[in-house]
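Researcher: I'd like a candidate sequence for this fold, 527 residues long. If you have to choose between options at a position, lean toward the conservative one.
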């Protein structure tokens, strides 16, 4: 401070000796000759870029000088600013700095995340002109930085049984490679699942390396099975030094679309009517002999299935059954082989290689004993292609129109292998397509084991005692099956193709039993 007395002040005291003293303290300040004067260098510390995942750190020495004539007392030394955690400052080497003396302290930068970190080091002292000295500090931490989007997601209210996927984006917003090396999915609900397989298919096997600015997508599935609220947590593990385990939360709630219970009474015996159309051309002699000699296996299998069956073999153009018996059933099944022999002995006509035509004649000619409530099984047997006048689809439609439920008509075939035939038979084209259209069985006429063939055909001809079609489409996981009011969880399965509950052979409900199938109805899942 320049202490220059104004002239008027001097004149007030008369003529006195006055000495003007310049007491500069070396940096432009003027003191009273006894004041300390602080200066710290460098005034700004720039640590530059440090890689966090390589554990890089840096330190800088700061020297504080006393340019005054009095003793400098350092009263406090601390860090100020928003990024205090990444900077540390040591104690100063001496809190008392004499004139022309100095003392030092160090600043250390330890970055923890991808960020530019700024702070100030404040030195408080007894310098009367500058009691607080500031050193600016800046450093650049270079690191991977994970960002999860969305961090929270609410699926809202979803109908029970509806599957919904939500994408979760993992992005590297840092300036070093992000390594994603694991996932943890925590939830108290079975309604949530993490599509780890789908994620691996899209992004490849872990670990994933995401360069700065790159991202990867994973999926969380919500499939509510009840009306409770659900929460899930997806943890993404990575080399982000600040957030090694990032979290995305998912919420949702199930809503019941509807409930239904279907009740069935198991028939004591299931009715099935079966018509064979046999090709009696010259090349079929051995094949028809096989049919005849093994027919006992066919009827005994039907009896074992508790089927109320009626079976006839057609060879005549009129569709009438030749012989004394109109059909074979459980009353005359012991004589099945001889009865079939008699049926086959009828005179063949022009329809011998036209099974569709012969069968259409047969359902009309034998309407007196064919039952409306019975399942209708139509079986073609030939070593030639089907040669009826119209396409298979025409005849399938014709036969299905005979029943209230088109599924009660099933067509089976014993013919030449499709599509290439075999050594002794051409492919049974036409009838093969009919078996596919109606869900029937196709057996090779070239086989040697006709007993097994006819047993398999019988199993496919019997009415479905083991399958129960539901009136509504269910949420499969909610199906509850009870037989005579006793719940059972084994011996059955749901098949979406056909919308049926199917019992295995060892667990078919007994005749006369009541089957109750309760379930949540599948709602509209088009969100």
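Model: Candidate sequence:
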């Amino acid at each position: 401070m320049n202490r220059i007395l104004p002239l008027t002040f001097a004149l007030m005291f008369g003529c006195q000796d006055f000495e003007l003293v310049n007491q500069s303290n070396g940096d432009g300040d003027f003191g009273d000759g006894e004041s300390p004067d602080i200066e710290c260098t460098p005034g700004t510390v720039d640590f530059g870029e440090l890689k966090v995942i390589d554990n890089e750190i840096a330190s800088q020495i700061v020297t504080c000088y006393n340019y005054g004539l009095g003793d400098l007392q350092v009263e406090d030394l601390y860090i100020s600013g928003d990024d205090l955690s990444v900077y540390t400052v040591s104690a100063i080497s001496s809190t008392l700095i004499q004139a022309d003396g100095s003392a030092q302290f160090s600043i250390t930068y330890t970055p923890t995340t991808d960020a530019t970190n700024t702070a100030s080091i404040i030195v408080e002292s007894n310098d009367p002109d500058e009691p607080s000295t500031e050193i600016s500090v800046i450093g650049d931490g270079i690191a991977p930085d994970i960002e999860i989007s969305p961090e929270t997601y609410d699926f809202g209210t979803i109908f029970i049984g509806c599957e919904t996927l939500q994408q979760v984006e993992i992005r590297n917003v840092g300036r070093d490679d992000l390594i994603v090396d694991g996932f943890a999915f925590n939830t108290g609900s079975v309604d949530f699942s993490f599509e780890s397989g789908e994620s691996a298919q899209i992004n490849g096997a872990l670990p994933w390396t995401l360069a700065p600015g790159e991202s990867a997508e994973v999926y969380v599935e919500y499939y509510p099975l009840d009306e409770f609220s659900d929460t899930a947590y997806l943890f993404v593990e990575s080399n982000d030094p600040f957030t090694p385990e990032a979290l995305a939360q998912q919420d949702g709630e199930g809503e019941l679309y509807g409930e239904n219970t279907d009740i069935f009474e198991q028939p004591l015996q299931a009715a099935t009517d079966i018509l064979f159309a046999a090709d009696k051309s010259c090349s079929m002699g051995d094949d028809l002999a096989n049919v005849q000699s093994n027919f006992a296996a066919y009827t005994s299998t039907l009896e074992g299935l508790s089927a109320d069956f009626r079976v006839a073999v057609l060879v005549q153009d009129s569709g009438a059954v030749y012989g004394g018996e109109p059909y074979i059933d459980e009353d005359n099944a012991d004589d099945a082989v001889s009865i079939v022999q008699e049926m086959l002995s009828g005179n063949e006509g022009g329809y011998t290689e036209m099974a569709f035509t012969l069968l259409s004649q047969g359902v009309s000619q034998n309407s007196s004993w064919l039952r409306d409530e019975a399942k209708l099984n139509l079986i073609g047997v030939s070593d030639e292609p089907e040669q009826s006048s119209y396409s298979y689809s025409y005849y399938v439609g014709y036969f299905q129109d005979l029943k209230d439920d088109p599924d009660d008509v099933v067509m089976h075939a014993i013919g030449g292998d499709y599509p290439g035939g075999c050594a002794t038979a051409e492919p049974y084209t036409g009838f093969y397509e009919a078996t596919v259209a109606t869900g029937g069985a196709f057996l090779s006429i070239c086989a040697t084991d006709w007993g097994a063939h006819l047993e398999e055909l019988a199993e496919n001809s019997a009415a479905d005692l083991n399958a129960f079609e539901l009136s509504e489409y269910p949420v499969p996981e909610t199906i509850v099956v009870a037989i005579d009011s006793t719940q059972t969880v084994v011996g059955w399965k749901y098949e979406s193709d056909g919308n049926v509950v199917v019992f295995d052979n060892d667990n078919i409900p007994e005749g006369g039993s009541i089957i109750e199938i309760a379930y949540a109805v599948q709602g509209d899942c088009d969100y």
